[in-house]
């Protein structure tokens, strides 16, 4: 059992495991292999690893080229440079024809910390979610990261895996199912449903625990797949709890909160609160300090749930 | 104008501040900060027309640190020039510090352009130079880039435009330390003869020892007409701290306490200074 690991290490190790099973796998990076941890793959399979230097646009189109030639390319860089600088390459060269390219992008969200706002991506899910046919996985721990890599390889089409930088506790087990497009109910509860994704899952579970002291039974659902979103689960939980709070390490514009709101609109009378980055850029600081300042902590989840319940 | 002797001393103190800053914040980029100290000293002390009392002076020369991760070096120089107090340095990268992990022109006095995403600074600087000419302003624009950074296609788009518009108020300075994150330039993605490339793009090119402030100054002051200028500064990544020198592993890692103490000792700087 792994207790603690960084998702990026889990990502690098999963690529190695996949590489042994699938000899069509090739991995591409843009001078960040020591940060995205594709260097683990590079060491094991030097002939199947391609470093393109600090040239993301070229790397992404090269990945498209590999897919056109029948190989299975996974490319990596930071989430901001991959989905941001590479947006139009992903859109036209990959997504437009549903090309079989996967990208695991690390250093997503606020947890990048000290590097600051120029490196913290809060818009990557939003950018990728707007692309027809794109699958988006946001794993919450090392086990889910591994499963996301294997699930991505099974899908015929583009897949974005959002990988975080920090070392985190595991909250799932090797046996926890990971079915693309199917959310996992991690905790039952009837008063409010906390719908979370990625690193926010552990905070959501802690908040649900704290809410019991206030006699509030909170359900917690893990949306490891943002697209396609499990709409059935959203509506079932909204129906049974009547109140929904979404939590994500991403802008509330275009991420999980938006996706849930789109499903709920016109289909349920349940109330919704969205926790996430409130239309702001990031800044330098220790990840934990930033999480507190931006309201990405269990205290804020507890407060938002309580407030939502007290509203008539 | 400062003498070479005092600038050599300054370089040593700036390096001490860089190491101390990174140790204090326990994050940041030592290698590329230590390699561009003399480039910054030549610009800020000998070449550029600036007024620290009036950071937004309209006709100031613009300096754009396109390799933004090296900002600890820039911050230490800005302190020495009097843009903000030295004690700010010890809050590098902390929450609510104006000294961000990458240069932020909306927060830090003396920073003209925000950078951090490689390639963009050189292009923005080209735009400022073109705008200056358009406005008939006579200030100059200097962009400092990394060798790994030249792998970005954007660098060559900017180079093409600078030559096309005959921007002789625009200078690109390369911190040619031969290393990037995953190894040497040659291992990661060969950039081959970088000077010939800029020449082919239409720049007037110079090569200089990137740790010799006077030599850099001389080249920067050479008049060039009708063309942008490119200055290739041969440098050592991690310069001044022997165990960091020419080690790509020191690109983005903060020193531990013992490494910090060793580095300060080697630089001859009292840690309480
Ligand atoms: C667009 C973009 N891609 C990747 C990075 C991550 N990154 C930061 S520094 C660096 C290496 C820079 O190497 P070089 O330009 O040679 O700088 P130096 O050696 O002077 O530190 C990389 C890849 C970035 N900041 N921006
Ligand atoms: Mg370099």
Can you give a write-up of this model?
The complex is a heterodimer of chains A (312) and B (273). Chain A has 312 residues and is of the alpha/beta class. Chain A folds into two domains: 4-169, Rossmann fold (3-Layer(aba) Sandwich), CATH 3.40.50.970; 184-310, Rossmann fold (3-Layer(aba) Sandwich), CATH 3.40.50. Chain A is 40% helix and 20% strand. Chain A contains 13 helices and 14 strands. In chain A, helix 1 (7-21) runs parallel beside helix 8 (142-154) and helix 9 (200-212) crosses helix 13. The N and C termini of chain A lie far apart (45 Å). The mean pLDDT of chain A is 97. In chain B, strands 1-2-3-5-4 form a five-stranded parallel sheet, sandwiched between helices. The longest helix of chain B is centred in the N-terminal third of the chain and has 22 residues, at 4-25. Chain B has helices at 4-25, 30-35, 37-47, 71-81, 120-135, 153-164, 185-188, 194-201, 213-221, 257-267, and strands at residues 62-65, 141-146, 170-176, 204-209, 229-234. The mean pLDDT of chain B is 97. Chain B is globular and about 50 Å long. In chain B, helix 1 runs antiparallel to helix 10, helix 3 (37-47) runs parallel beside helix 4 and helix 5 packs parallel to helix 6 (153-164). Chain B has one domain (4-267): Thiamin diphosphate (ThDP)-binding fold, Pyr/PP domains (Rossmann fold), CATH 3.40.50.970. Chain B has ten helices and five strands. Chain B has 273 residues and is an alpha/beta fold. The interface between A and B is medium-sized, with 31 and 33 residues. The structure holds thiamine diphosphate (TPP) and magnesium ion. Thiamine diphosphate (TPP) sits between chains B (31-32, 35, 67, 69-70, 116-119, 146-149, 175, 177, 179-181, 237, 251) and A (31-32, 54, 81, 85). Thiamine diphosphate sits between chains B (31-32, 35, 67, 69-70, 116-119, 146-149, 175, 177, 179-181, 237, 251) and A (31-32, 54, 81, 85).
């Amino acid at each position: 059992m792994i207790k603690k690991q960084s998702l990026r290490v889990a990502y690098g190790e999963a690529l190695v495991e996949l590489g042994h099973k699938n000899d069509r796998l090739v991995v591409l990076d843009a001078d960040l292999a020591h940060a995205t941890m594709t260097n683990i793959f590079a060491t094991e399979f030097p002939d199947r690893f391609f470093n393109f230097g600090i040239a993301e646009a070229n790397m992404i189109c090269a990945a498209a080229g590999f897919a056109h030639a029948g190989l299975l390319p996974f490319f990596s860089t930071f989430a901001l440079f991959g989905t941001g600088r590479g947006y139009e390459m992903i859109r036209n060269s990959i997504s437009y024809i549903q090309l079989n390219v996967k990208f695991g992008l690390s250093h997503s969200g606020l947890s990048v910390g000290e590097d600051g706002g120029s490196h913290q991506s809060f818009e990557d899910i939003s950018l990728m979610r707007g692309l027809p046919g794109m699958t988006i996985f946001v794993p919450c721990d090392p086990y889910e990261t591994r499963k996301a890599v294997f699930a991505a390889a099974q899908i015929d089409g583009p897949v974005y895996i959002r990988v975080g930088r920090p070392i985190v506790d595991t909250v799932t087990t090797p046996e926890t199912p990971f079915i693309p497009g199917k959310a996992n109910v991690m905790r039952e509860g009837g008063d409010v449903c906390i719908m979370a994704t990625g690193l926010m899952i552990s905070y959501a579970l802690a908040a649900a625990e704290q809410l019991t002291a206030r006699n509030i039974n909170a359900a917690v659902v893990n949306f490891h797949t943002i697209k396609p979103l499990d709409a059935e689960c959203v509506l079932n939980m909204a129906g049974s709890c009547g109140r929904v709070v979404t939590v994500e390490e991403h802008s509330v514009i275009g991420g999980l909160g938006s996706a849930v709101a789109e499903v709920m609109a016109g289909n349920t009378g349940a109330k919704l609160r969205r926790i996430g980055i409130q239309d702001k850029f990031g800044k330098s600081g220790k990840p934990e300090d930033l999480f507190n300042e931006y309201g990405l902590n269990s205290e804020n989840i507890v407060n938002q749930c309580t407030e939502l319940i007290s509203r008539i | 104008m400062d003498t070479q002797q005092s600038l050599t001393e300054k370089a040593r103190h700036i390096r001490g501040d860089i190491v101390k800053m990174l140790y204090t914040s326990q994050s940041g980029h030592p290698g590329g900060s230590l390699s561009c100290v003399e480039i910054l000293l030549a610009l800020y002390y000998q070449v550029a027309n600036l007024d620290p009392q009036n950071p937004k002076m309209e006709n100031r020369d613009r300096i754009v640190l396109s390799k933004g991760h090296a900002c600890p070096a820039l911050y230490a120089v800005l302190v020495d020039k009097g843009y903000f107090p030295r004690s700010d340095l010890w809050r590098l990268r902390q929450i609510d510090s104006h000294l961000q992990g990458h240069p932020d022109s909306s927060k830090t006095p003396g920073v003209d352009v925000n950078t951090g995403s490689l390639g963009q600074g050189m292009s923005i600087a080209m735009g400022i130079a073109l705008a200056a000419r358009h406005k008939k302003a006579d200030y100059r624009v200097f962009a400092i880039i990394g060798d790994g950074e030249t792998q970005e296609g954007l660098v060559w788009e900017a180079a093409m435009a600078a030559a096309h518009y005959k921007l002789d108020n625009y200078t690109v300075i390369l911190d040619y330390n031969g290393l990037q994150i995953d190894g040497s330039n040659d291992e990661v993605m060969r950039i081959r003869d970088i000077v010939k490339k800029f020449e082919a793009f239409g720049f007037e090119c110079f090569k200089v020892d990137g740790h010799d402030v006077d030599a850099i100054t001389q080249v920067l002051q050479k008049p060039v007409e009708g063309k942008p200028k490119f200055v290739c500064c041969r440098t050592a990544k991690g310069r001044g701290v022997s165990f960091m020198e020419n080690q790509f592993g020191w690109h983005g890692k903060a020193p531990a306490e013992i490494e910090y103490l060793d580095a300060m000792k080697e630089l001859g700087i009292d840690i309480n200074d």
